[in-house]
């Protein structure tokens, strides 16, 4: 079957360049991609901004969300046990997997035991992390993504480039081309036509499938339930039609109670798409019961560690587990805006991916330089509904790499020089003087356009300024004398303001306060 | 009262006029600045790149320079923001940790000092030009500087302040990022200048010479005659006519 050929395409036919710089250059030279990513991220972040403004108490709710996540992760062992006990009492089979391989093995065993021929999936980043589709195909189980974006990506033989909008890097003409190939006829690049084709196609697949597979947005400890947020209704089909359901979830997806879900349900859709609530929100507590109209006969939840517990107890990274995978940091990120998700090289992209991908891997030597692909502007932190300080974490990753001896050697030498020069003001003064002599040959019209050596990266896009003929410290004596000569009496109002501020600060210091913002 | 200037290495070496404008403006309010010469750089390039030992070498000069100051003023939100990271650098060093916390409490970026400390928002400046403002990320997001520059600019006579599209987006400077990831940074700064041009402003102003050097360099590379200046320079020109 033609669709089989498309579905069995593995990721290996997309050979990715080794470094983030090379991958970013591919994206930077792809105008279609950049335009598509810009268009959608702008729409999403404007939507989020509006939703947050309309909400009216966004900052307070952000803090509530953060507190719920902090509390849950601090007591994760307790809540995981509570969740597992309650889910088992509902008749759900709970499996714990320490590694990705283990989780795949558990899923494949279920598929084999059920003699499954096909699996329908709703969107799940964890299954992307495990490359589960490839694994299922290796035992001849047809695996079909049913989220529209994921379906497109699967047809293209690619991986998602955004946590919630997997095909963000494609425009509708590219999508029409892909779907036309699948349809065996030319489909016009119109949303209703394209979505209509996919809907008809997938309906057959839902009815045939032996197993429905999902991710999990939140797992509710107090009742052993799992909650899914979605807009297309496909997750609801996946969790009601097939006889067997398998859910994969990261071990950190837990929240204690349904009342905590109220806060999360307020934060997640608004942060992700600017919606007050997604079109569908499903809460599932166990397999089909006697009087239920539908639902699977057998339900499995596989709870995955795969590097997550590395963050537990680590003061610099534990908050990473607070992430609710809304994608707001991607939409806010000025780097993601230009390079899209594939440049990050891992399952998770954007600022969260730049931190998560290395953090999930304890071998520092295998870390790519994605933590370096950030200007540290902090837009991610500002966008995050649970206030994860990603911009700080990026620096901690860089530091760990340096301290364990995997830093760039040339940069290391440069920084040694920097430290030595900046340790003594006399050295800094001398360097400025030497620099002024050195730049003489390079200055043109008061700027330095040369692209030689270390100037290349900067001057490919700019003209560098020259060092001033006289540094501030050299000019200070003269300036100070001039200002002192004409000095004015301070306005008593200002004088009093300053004295009051000083007195207040002294008081705060005694009390150990943090001072002004 | 001892009020000290933290010039920042970039203004010291490349943009001394910014420090001069700041000193002259403050003198008008009777603030007599002093300049401790042992200061060098806040250490941010090393800190951000993960070289914390080297960052501490620079930071120690700053701690020493401003130990006795009552107020510290810098013409940069980013370098002032870096001082807020010092407690992390010295968390295992109780003596310097106490100094770092003390420095954090008494440090102000230029516009913060004008508005929060002096209580001055109208400097009596006249600046008959069309101006747009780039809110630098660290000043805005680490220090929370939003209203202060707006208040200062709104009171400038004859000045037309026009909005910068996508103002809150980073200009792509990011210190060593601009060199290490030069093509990504280049794409970012190119877009930022596009937005500056779209605003049709004659003058771009801001509170950080790192970001302004980045944007000015790109504008100049593209032969776009937009004048780029620190807000202190703009205000000083506006009150002195020079």
TrEMBL record, chain A:
Q: Which UniProt keywords apply?
A: 4Fe-4S, Electron transport, Iron, Iron-sulfur, Metal-binding, Repeat, Transport
Query: Which Gene Ontology terms describe the biological processes this protein takes part in?
Result: lactate metabolic process
> Which superkingdom heads the taxonomic lineage of this protein's source?
Bacteria
Q: Per the record, a Pfam family?
A: Fer4_8
Polar residues bias (residue ranges) = 1-16
Q: Where is this region: Disordered?
A: 1-20
Domain 4Fe-4S ferredoxin-type span(s) in chain numbering:
313-344
What are the recorded GO MF terms, alphabetically?
Answer: 4 iron, 4 sulfur cluster binding; metal ion binding
Q: What is this protein called?
A: Amino acid dehydrogenase
Q: List the top taxonomic levels of the source.
A: Bacteria, Bacillati, Bacillota, Bacilli, Bacillales
From TrEMBL, chain B:
The organism's place on the tree of life at top rank = Bacteria
Q: Which residues form the Cysteine-rich domain?
A: 3-83, 131-215
Q: Name one GO cellular component term.
A: cytosol
Which Gene Ontology molecular function entries are recorded, alphabetically? oxidoreductase activity
- Pfam families assigned to the protein according to its UniProt record, in alphabetical order: CCG
The family database entries (PANTHER family) matched by this protein are listed as: LACTATE UTILIZATION PROTEIN A, UNCHARACTERIZED PROTEIN YKGE
UniProt protein name: Fe-S oxidoreductase
């Amino acid at each position: 079957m033609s669709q089989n050929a498309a579905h069995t395409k593995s990721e290996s036919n997309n050979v990715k360049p080794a470094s983030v710089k090379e991958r970013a250059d591919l994206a930077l030279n792809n105008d279609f991609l950049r335009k598509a990513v810009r268009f959608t991220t702008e729409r999403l972040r404007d939507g989020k901004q509006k939703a947050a403004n309309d909400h009216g108490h966004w900052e307070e709710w952000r803090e509530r969300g953060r507190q719920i996540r902090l509390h849950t992760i601090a007591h994760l062992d307790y809540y995981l046990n509570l969740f597992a006990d309650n889910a088992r009492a509902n008749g759900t089979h709970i499996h714990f997997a320490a590694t990705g391989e283990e989780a795949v093995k558990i899923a494949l065993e279920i598929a084999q035991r059920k003699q499954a021929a096909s699996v329908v999936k709703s969107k799940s980043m964890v299954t992307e992390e495990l490359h589960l589709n490839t694994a299922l195909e290796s035992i001849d189980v047809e695996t079909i993504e049913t989220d529209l974006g994921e379906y497109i990506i699967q047809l293209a033989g690619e991986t998602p480039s955004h946590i919630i909008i997997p095909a963000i890097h494609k425009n509708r003409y590219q999508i029409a081309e892909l779907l036309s190939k699948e349809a065996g006829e030319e489909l016009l690049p119109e949303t209703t036509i394209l979505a209509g084709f996919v809907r008809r196609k997938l309906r057959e697949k839902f009815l045939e499938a032996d197993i429905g597979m999902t991710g999990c947005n939140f797992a509710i400890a107090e009742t052993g339930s799992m909650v899914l947020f979605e807009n297309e209704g496909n997750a609801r089909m996946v969790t009601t039609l097939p006889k067997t359901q398998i859910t994969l979830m990261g071990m950190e997806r837990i929240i204690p109670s349904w009342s905590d879900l109220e806060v999360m349900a307020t934060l997640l859709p608004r942060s992700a798409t600017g919606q007050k609530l997604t079109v569908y929100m499903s809460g599932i507590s166990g397999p089909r019961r006697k009087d239920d109209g539908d639902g699977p006969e057998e339900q499995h939840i596989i709870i995955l560690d795969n590097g997550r517990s590395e963050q537990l107890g680590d003061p610099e990274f534990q908050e990473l587990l607070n992430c609710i995978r809304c994608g707001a940091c991607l939409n806010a990120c000025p780097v993601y805006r230009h390079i899209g998700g594939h440049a990050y090289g891992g399952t998770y992209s954007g600022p969260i991916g730049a931190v998560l991908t290395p953090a999930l891997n304890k071998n520092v030597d295998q870390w790519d330089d994605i933590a370096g692909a950030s200007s540290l502007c902090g837009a991610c932190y500002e966008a995050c509904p649970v206030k994860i300080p990603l911009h700080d974490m990026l620096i901690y990753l860089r530091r760990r790499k340096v301290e364990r001896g995997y830093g760039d050697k040339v940069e290391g030498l440069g920084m040694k020089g920097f430290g030595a020069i900046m340790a003594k003001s006399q050295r800094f003064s001398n360097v400025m003087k030497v620099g002024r002599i050195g730049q003489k040959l390079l200055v043109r019209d008061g700027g330095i356009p040369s692209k030689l050596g270390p100037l290349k990266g900067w001057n490919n896009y700019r003209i560098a300024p020259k060092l001033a003929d006289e540094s501030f410290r050299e000019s200070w004596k003269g300036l100070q004398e001039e200002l002192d000569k004409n000095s004015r009496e301070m306005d008593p109002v200002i004088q009093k303001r300053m004295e009051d501020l000083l007195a207040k600060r002294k008081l705060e210091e005694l009390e150990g306060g943090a001072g002004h913002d | 009262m001892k009020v000290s200037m933290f010039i920042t290495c970039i203004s010291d070496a490349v943009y001394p006029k910014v420090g001069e404008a700041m000193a002259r403006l403050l003198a008008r309010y009777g603030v007599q600045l002093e300049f401790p010469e042992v200061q060098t750089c806040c250490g941010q390039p090393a800190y951000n790149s993960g070289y914390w030992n080297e960052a501490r070498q620079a930071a120690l000069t700053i701690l020493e320079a401003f130990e006795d100051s009552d107020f510290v003023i810098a013409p940069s939100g980013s370098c002032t923001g870096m001082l807020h990271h010092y407690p992390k650098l010295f968390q295992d060093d109780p003596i310097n940790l106490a100094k770092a916390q003390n420095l954090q409490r008494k440090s102000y970026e230029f516009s913060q000092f004008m508005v929060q400390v002096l209580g001055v928002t109208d400097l009596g400046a006249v600046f008959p030009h069309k101006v747009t403002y780039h809110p630098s990320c660290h000043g805005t997001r680490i220090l929370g500087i939003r209203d202060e520059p707006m208040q200062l600019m709104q009171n400038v006579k004859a000045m037309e302040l026009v909005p910068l599209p996508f103002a809150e987006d980073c200009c792509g400077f990011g210190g060593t990022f601009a060199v290490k990831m030069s093509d990504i940074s280049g794409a970012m700064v190119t877009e930022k200048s596009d937005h500056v041009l779209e605003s049709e402003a004659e003058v771009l102003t801001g509170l950080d010479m790192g970001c302004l050097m980045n944007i000015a360099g790109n504008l100049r590379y593209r032969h776009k005659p937009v004048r780029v200046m620190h807000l202190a320079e703009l205000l000083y020109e506006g009150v002195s006519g020079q």
